[in-house]
Structure formats: C-alpha cells, structure tokens
Amino acid sequence: MHKKLSSMPRLRTMAGGLSLAVLAGCSMIPEYERPAAPVAAAFPGQVTADAAAPAAAEVPWNQFVRDERLRALVELAIAHNRDLRVAVLNIEQVRAQYQIQRSNQFPKLNLAATGNRQPDGEGGIASTYTAGLAMSSWELDFFGRVASLKEAALAQYVASEEARKAAQTSLVAAVASTWLSLQANDELLALTQQTLATREDSLRLTKLRFDNGAASALDLRQAESLTAAARATLAQQRRLRMLDVNALTLLVGQPLPEALVAAGQTTSAGEQFPDVPAGVPSDLLTRRPDIRQAEQALLAANANIGAARAAFFPRISLTASAGTASNELSGLFRSGSWGFTLAPQALLPIFDAGRNQAGLASAQAARDIAVAQYEKAIQMAFREVADALAGRATLQEQLAAQQVQADAEAERFRLAELRYRNGVASFLDVLDAQRSLFATQQAMAQTRLARQQNQVALYKALGGGF
Q: How many domains would you assign to the chain?
C-alpha cells in the first residue's frame, strides 16, 4: 500500500521503536561457569612457588633466548614459517566470519528498481514501475537467536587469536630445541672425530707392534674393529647433523644463513636459558594460549545453545521499501508518487519432525564435548609442566654424576695405555677403557642436550614464547 510524504515521520518513529525492541531482546545463552580444573592444586614435588621471579608467560622469548644466533633464527622463523602464517590468516578469515554474523543484527538496505507489465483483464496491458530503497527480511531478534550466533562467532574469533599465540609458542620452542640438537650433534661430531683420530693412532701403533712380533693378531683385529666403529659413528653423526639442518630450514621457512648454523660454534655458560618459576596449576588457565583457546571454543559452544533454544520461538522478520511508484516510467519521480510498503512476518514452529529439538541436543552435546576438550587441555598442560619439572630436578644431578664418571674414565684410559706401553697390561684393557670413555662422553652430550631442551620445554609448558 502507498502513503504520502506526510507518513514518513510515522515510519521513522515505528523503525525507532522496533530498534529499541530488538536491542532489548532477551538472551537464551546459558550462564557460563568455568569448569573446575581437573588437576591437583600443586605440581608433583613442588613445595613453594617462587613469587619473586617473573612468570614464564611474562618473559618475552627474546629475553629467554640469550644466544644471538638462535635469536636470529627465531626471528626468521616468526617472519617466514608457513604454519604460523596460516594461523595468522585463519584469524583474518574468522574475523570476517564474525563481521558477517554481526551484520545480521542490522537491516540491509538496497537500491531497487522494478518494472512489471501484465494483462489487466480488459484486453489491455497494466504497467507498474517502482524505484527506491528496499529492506528484505530483517530478523527482529526478540529472542536472541542472531545475537547468540554473533557471540559464538566472536568467541571463535578470539579462539583463533589464541591459536596464533599457541602456534608461535610452539614454533619458538621447536626452533630452540632443534637448534640445541644441532649444537649437540656438532659436539658429538667433534668428539667422534677426536676419538677416530685416537683410534687410528692406536691402530698404527698396534700394526707396528704386530709387524715386529710384539702384538698378537687378536690385538690388531680389535684395534681395526674399534677404528671401523668410530668411522661408522662419524658417518651417523654427519647424517644427524644434516637432518637437524633440514628440520631447521623447514621451521625457519627459508634457506638458513651459513653463519647461524656453522659447525664449531659453542654456546658459553652465560648464554644458557634462564630458569623460570613453575607457579601453581591455576596459573596455566590464564597463561597458556592453548587453554584459553579451548575455553573460547567452550564459550562458542555455549552461545550456540542459546541460538538453538531461540529456534523454538517465533521468528519475526520485516520487509519494507520506500520510494516512488507509477504506472508510467516517465512518472516515477513526479510529485505525489512517493510512498512506502511495510510487510512484517512471524513464523512459529508447529511441526518440524524434531528438527529444532535435534538442533538443541546437538548444541548441548557440542558444549559437553568442548568441556571435555577444555579439561583435557588443562590436564595435558599439567602433565607437560610436571614432566619438565621432573627433568629440571634430576637432569643437572645426572649430568654432574656423568662428569665425574667421564673424568674417571679419561684417567683410566690414560693409565691403561701407559701400562700397555710398559708391557704391564694387555691391549684389551686399553680398548675397553677407550670404548667406555667414548660412551661416557656421548652420554654426557646427550644429557646436556636433554637438560637444555627441558628448559625450553618448561618455558613453553608454562605459557612462554609469545
């Protein structure tokens, strides 16, 4: 139906009243209560928390990483790693989806022009032409369905931001751990080269003694066996080093600068990672991005329940247009041709074969799944911290004991070699001492690597790295 221009103030008043009604619409989202953390109040073996030192989540990665070369590698990885880039782009995608969902709360105005010609029943042709603004199917959200969907989209957007932080935390830890493995393999490579040189010297001496009848064929074959074993270990260490470089290249996302991964560069004692306080398990809820991500997913699932509940109630939509209409195209914009149409619609579900009930059951099940996933994220975080704390409590002690063992084995090898050259001991004693010394030195390098990687793991487990 058409009205004159004098009806326009009434339309504006009606639209304002409808807007207020929509803004005052109720929400059917269940009240959110954070699930209780299904873990102990303290980590295993923890006596007191160190409140003086800053928490891991408050220590930026570039302060935790003290080695300049490793810091440069982490910077390159943050700039070029493809997994992290995907996480950033996911934020943009989810942000756009949230904006789409938010726009559903507002009417969509379009510029519309129509023309219609049809028989008028009297043998003639009736024409109708319209032009103006049109608003189609704007849902008046009295029961909060659209608002609930918007809240779910907002929680998903925040979750994507937390996922990006978790991705960077994992990336920093992965780069640091792989770089430490590369350093350990460089150390083992140098140790193996030194051991091979020592065994080759022993082989030459043994062969000379054998040629002069001062050593048996058994001594010669044992020396040859140990020398070949050292060569095999050397080839293995070279392969492991190349694998570490390949892994770092993938993490960094571009070819590695040779100066950052050159062999023979060691990290001084002052450049080790600092220890960080463990705090209490409840701190993980706000400091670990993966736990915050899981909680946002839970909030999104909770909001979807509100949308599913609102589907049981009437869905009221409004279609309207304002503009000009005429029976002749040339008369569209003449005086007196202006007016508006208003067509509200209410749909109340009566029979849908259980569709809405199933939708609500699905939303509730999704919320229960999100609760379980949130609780599992907490439990996984607790376990990671507990494992890292167990390593911190024992690895340094293990390393100190191995150092004492290595010193003893080095002295044993020196004495065995001296006794053999003086004819007091057999060559078997020398070979056994040499083999034990090499194995102990290898174990020390592996334990030192485990201790440093454990420091990185604890920093990551406590929410550091962003």
A: 2
Copy the structure tokens of residue 144: 């909060």
Indicate whether 211 and 282 sit together in one domain.
yes
**CA 275: distance to chain centroid?**
23
For the full predicted model, state whether its pTM sits above 0.70: yes
* Residue from 233, 224, 234 nearest 203 by CA: 224
Report yes or no on 122 lying in a domain.
yes
152 burial class (0-12, 13-18, 19+ CB within 10 angstroms)?
Answer: buried
Token couple for 180? 């430490």
**Which band of pLDDT confidence, cut at 50, 70 and 90, is reported for residue 241?**
very high
Residue 261 parent element (H or E): helix 258-261
User: Confidence band (pLDDT; 50, 70, 90) for 240?
Assistant: very high
Domain span at 319? 1-30+112-140+315-347
**Euclidean distance between CA atoms 309 and 215, whole angstroms:** 92
User: Does the pLDDT at position 52 exceed 80?
Assistant: no
CATH number assigned to the domain comprising residue 195: 1.20.1600.10
pLDDT tens digit string along 173-188? 999 999 999 999 999 9
In a domain, 243, yes or no: yes
* SS3 at position 109: strand
Whichever domain contains 322, its CATH number is 2.20.200.10
Residue 322 located in a structural domain: yes
Token duo for residue 283: 């701190």
Are 186 and 244 part of one and the same domain? yes
Task: Classify residue 118: in a domain, yes or no.
Answer: yes
| Domain identity same for 261 and 118 | no
pLDDT per residue over 362-418, tens digit each? 999 999 999 999 999 999 999 999 999 999 889 999 999 999 999 999 999 899 888
Q: Please check whether residues 154 and 210 belong to one and the same domain.
A: yes
- Residue tagged 């839970």 (tokens): 298
**Tens of pLDDT, residues 144-164:** 888 999 999 999 999 999 999
Residues composing the chain: 466
Of 269, 273, 268, the C-alpha closest to 388 is 273
| Residue 238 pLDDT exceeds 50 | yes
Helix, strand, coil percentages (3-state) for the chain, rounded to 5, are 65, 10, 25
- In this structure, are 17 and 72 located in the same domain? no
Q: What is the pLDDT of residues 58-113, one digit of tens each?
A: 888 888 888 889 999 999 999 999 999 999 999 999 999 989 888 888 888 888 88
CA distance 127 to 123: 13
